[in-house]
Amino acid sequence: MKRRCPDMTAKLTGVKLLWEDVKTRSWLFILMTVGSAALLPFGLQMRLSTLEYDMLPVLQEDMEWFRQAKEQVLLDVLGYGNSMVYFGCIVAAVISAVTGFAYLQSRRQVDFYHSLPLRRERLFLIRYLGGFLMTAVPYLLCAAAALLGVGGAHGALCRETAAAAAGAAGFYILLFLLFYTLAVLAVLLTGRILTGLLLTGFFYLYGALCTWLIQREMSFYFSTYYYTAESGNFFGQMPLFLPVTQGLNLSRALAAGETVPAGSWVLAVLSLGIALGLCVLLYRKRPSEACGNAFSYRWMESVLKVAVAIPAALWVVSLLESMGYLAGTAMLLTAGGLAAVILTGIFEFIYSQDLRNVWRHKVSGIFALGGTLLILLAFQQDWFRYDSWLPEESQVESMAVYSSELDGIFTDSYWYMQDTEERILEEGLTEDFASIYQLARLGAGETGGAESEAASGSEWMTQAVIHFHLKNGRDIYRQYTVPLSRLEETVGQLLEEKSSREIYYPTQYRNVKNVTDLSFRDWNDYYDMNENLPLGRNEIDELLELFREEYLSCSYRELKEMEPVGVLYLGNFQDNRGPYMGTEIGYYIYPSFEKTLAYLNRRGIQLLERPDLSRIVSVQLDYLTELELSSEEDMTSSAVSELYAFNTKEDIEALFGQLERVRQTDYLTTGEYADVQIMFADGVYSSIQFQVKDGEAFRAFLDEHSGAQESYAE
C-alpha cells in the first residue's frame, strides 16, 4: 500500500486552503476593488477633469504651469499625502483581519481547521496571506490603472510622478501590513468579534491617547513645558506603539518631500516583524477553549483593566481640574482615587456581568489605584524638578531663543508667524550662548530675579522658548517667563551679527516671491487705508529686494528704537510654505530705509513726516489706565476706561499732541494707552490705538479740555 508523503499532502492542502479562502471571501476582493477604484482611478479622473474644465480657459498662455498643476493633482491622489487612502488602509486592515480569522470564535470551526494535516504556523500564514492578497492586489491594479491609464491620458504622467506613485504604493502596502497584523493580533487575543474590534482600537489608539494625556498634564502642571514633535513623543519612534500617528507623520513628511531617516524605516519593519512573530506564537499556543470568551487568556483582563483605568482616571481628574472643581492636594488625590476605584469596578462588571464580582481581582485594583495616585502626586509636586531643571553650562553645545514678542517690530500680521518658533529654534542655534544661558537661569528661578520682578509688577513679563542642544546629542526645549526687557537685551545682542538676522528676520527667511498685489499705508495718515502700488512683476521684485536689503542692514536694537513711517503690504504671494491667495502680509517701513523711500518717491509716493489732522472733524477717546503689569490677568482685572469726545480743531490738535502712534507690541511696555475713534470730513471712520506719552500730563489735559462722558471698570 502506497503512502502519500506528509510534506506533499501539506503542500497540496495549503494551496487548496488558500484558494478556498479566496473563493469564500470573494466578496472581500470585490469590495476592495470597488473601494480602490473609487479612491484612485475614478478619483483622479474627476479631479483632473475638474481642473481642465475650470482652469484651461484661463491658462491657455501658460501651459507649462497647467502641466505642473496636473502632475500635482496626480501626486495628491497617488502620492503619499492622500489621507483617504491612508484611512482606507486602516478600514481594509480591520475588515481583512476580522473576516480572515473569525473562525477562531467558533469551537466547531477551530476543531476542523486544527484537524487538518498542517502545522498551525502554516495554517496561520495561509489565512494571513489570503487577507493580504485580497486587499493588496486590487489596490495595486487600481493604482496602476490610475497612473498609466488616467494619468497618461491627461498628460500628467512623467518619470517623477511615476516614481513618486510607485514609492507611495510601497509605503501604503507597508502601512496596511502593520495595521493588518495588529488587527490579527487583537483577534487572536480575544474570543469574541466585539472584543476583538475593541482591542484593535486599543492597539491603534492607546499610545496616541496616552501621549495626548501626558502632554495635557505636563502643560497644566509645568509652566516651562514646551511642546515639539520630539518632546511630545513619549513612546519614541516605534510604530508598534503609535501606529496611527507615526504612520500619519511619515505620510506627511514624505508628501512634503522631507527625507525620512533610514532608522524610521527600520523601526517600521521591525515593528511589523515583532507583531507578526507574536501572531504566529499566539496562534500556535492559543487554547481552543478561548472561543466565546472575552479574552483568550485570563491574565489579559487584569492587565487591560490597569492599562485603561489609570489613564481614564487621570483624564477624569484633568477634566475636573479644568472646570475648577479641584483645589489642593487632598481634593486632587480624593478625586483620582475615587475615579480609579469606580473605573476598575466598571471593568470587572463588563467582564463578569455580575455585580457581586466587581471587586474580585483586588490586586489589579490596587495597582490601578496606586498608579493613579502616584502619577498625580508626581505631576502635582513636581517630583522630578521639571520646572527648575537646567543643564550645566558645560553640557551645552549650542542654544537658541525665540519669543513671538520679537516679531512686532517687523509686522502686525501675527497669523503669518504661526510656525516661526520651531524653525528659528532649530536654525538659530549658536555656540555663543552665554547671554541665552543667563536668560534661561533667570527663567528657571536660579537667580530669583524673574519672580521678584513679576511680583512687584515693575516689569512686563513675557514667555521665551529656549532650545538646548546638548553635547550628547539631545535636544531639549523649555518655555520660561522672563522680563521683556531682558529678552530684548539678549536678542539685541544676538542679532548684532548679520548671519543671525538672516535666520530671525521674517523678511529674509520667508523667501516671498510671485507677489501680484502691492499696497502701502502711510503711518502718519490716520485715514488708515491702503493705497495700491501699480507696479509690474519685475518692479515689485526690485522693490522687495531693496526692502530686504535695508531690513538686513539694521540691527534689532536699531529697528526697536525707530518709529515706522509706513507699512508695505504684500498680497497674493508665494513663500517657502506655499501660495497665499486672497491674503496679505504687512511689513513696517522705517525712516532709515532710504532706498525704499527713494523708490517710492520716484513713483510719486511721499510718506508724511507728521500727522495730517486737517480732515478730522471729531474724535472719541477711550482712555484705559492699567494699574498692574505683572500678568495679562492682572492687567485686565485692574483697568479703568473713560470715554471722552473732542469736536474742535484746537482740541483735536492738542489731543494728538499728547498721543503717540506705536507698533502693537510697544503697548505692552506702557501702563497707559487709548483707543481713538476718528471721524473724517467725508464721513469715513477709523479706529487706532495710541500710546499716552506722559500719563500725568495727559490726565491734566483731559481735565482741562473735556469732561468724562462715562467711566467703567473692565
TrEMBL record:
- Under what name is this protein listed? DUF6449 domain-containing protein
**Residue ranges of coiled coil:** none
Where in this chain does the record put each DUF6449 domain?
Answer: 468-568
Q: Which organism is it from?
A: Candidatus Scatomonas pullistercoris
Keywords (alphabetical) are:
Membrane, Transmembrane, Transmembrane helix
List membrane-spanning regions: 26-44, 84-104, 125-150, 162-189, 196-214, 262-283, 303-320, 326-351, 363-379
Top-rank taxon, per record = Bacteria
Name of a matching Pfam family: DUF6449
